[in-house]
Amino acid sequence: MLSRLRLLVLGLIAVIAIPAMAQAKTFYWISHGGPADPVWTYFLAGAKQWATDTGNKVNTSFHNGDVASQQEAIRAAISAKADGIVTTSPDPGSLIELAKEARAANIPIINFNTPDPKANFNAYVGGDNVTFGKHWAQYLVDKGLVKKGDFVWMPVEVPGATYGVQEEEGIKSVFGPAGITYEITEATLDQAEVISRMSDYLTAHKGKVKAIIGLGDLVTGSIKRVFDQVGVKPGEIPVVGWGNSLDTTQEVLNGYVNAAQWQDPQATSYVALSLANMAASGIPPGFNVITGALYEKDTAGVYDKILSGK
Q1: Which CDD domains does this one have (predicted)?
Q2: What is the C-alpha separation between 26 and 253, in angstroms, rounded?
Q3: Among 19, 39, 55, 236, which residue's CB has the most CB atoms within a 10 Å radius?
């Protein structure tokens, strides 16, 4: 009797488990970033954690600022009849047609990290880059760190990419009326090259630069190494920018960076995939999820603990 009961229970478990396994879905997580950029390891970790927690499959890919490559990855996901796609926007307007194609194929397509309101995505998860840029510039002005006639240096990994273009829009709205000038320079997505280019620029323009705005996580997270190499003391040149890496939380704690922007990288990927899954199940998201907080030394420890897994 006991053996029969065991067989019956095992049979019921098998019957329940087989449909559950059959319901697993396949999603595509597509980034304009590069795997060498520390912050993208956190975005990727959020996607992997979501796959583990839900039992769904997530195909991930990085495209290192190559717009054509990212477009092809989205086309491949559509052709594969993905259950959902979550993607960054590599350049403004670059995914308008692909978003239409995905929607026409009834494939949810969620935009994350870098928004493009002109594309018909199902939803957006991430920060408002125009607002972030405005806040960085306003922070420098309000704190008396820059004034009329000053020059601000703004390094970025990929000039022309969505995030930098939108951030500059916000910065310009503050610096333009204030009579503050700036220059954007290319740093690339290679860590060693970033440090080399930033060090060369600062060596040549140290006397001119009154403040720095890091338009990406890789450049902001390289400030300490650049300052140490060039001989700039912590706090000598005010710095604001992105703060989604342990490099930057430590820079804020040690005085190299005045304030940094948090965007919840793990949570951004996790929520974006959750919205895609919800839409794939027939519940359309009627909202965006905006993340972000500007932190200084007094709260940097909170984000340092999150990123270090403590």
Answers
A1: PBP1_ABC_sugar_binding-like (cd19966)
A2: 41
A3: 39
pLDDT in tens, 109-141: 999 999 999 999 999 999 999 999 999 999 999
Structure tokens at 155: 């390094």
310 falls in which pLDDT band (50, 70, 90)? low
Average pLDDT over residues 76-91: 97
Query: Are the beta carbons of 50 and 60 closer than 8 angstroms?
Result: no
SS3 at position 264: coil
Residue 147 CA to residue 168 CA, distance in Å, equals: 18
CA distances from 76 to 83, 119, 301 (A): 13, 19, 41
Contacts of residue 114, defined as CB under 8 A and 6 or more positions apart, other chains included, come to 32, 88, 89, 90, 126, 129, 161, 162, 163, 166
Q: Encode pLDDT of 136-154 as tens digits.
A: 999 999 999 999 999 999 9
Q: Interior CA angle at 40 toward 35 and 42, to 5°?
A: 125
Whole-Å CA distances, 261 to 52, 167, 172, 175, 230: 28, 12, 18, 19, 25
**E-strand spans in the chain?**
26-31, 57-62, 84-87, 109-112, 123-126, 151-156, 181-186, 209-214, 239-242, 259-262, 289-290, 293-295
Name residue 84's beta-bridge partners: 27
Q: How many Å apart are CA 216 and CA 228, to the nearest integer?
A: 20
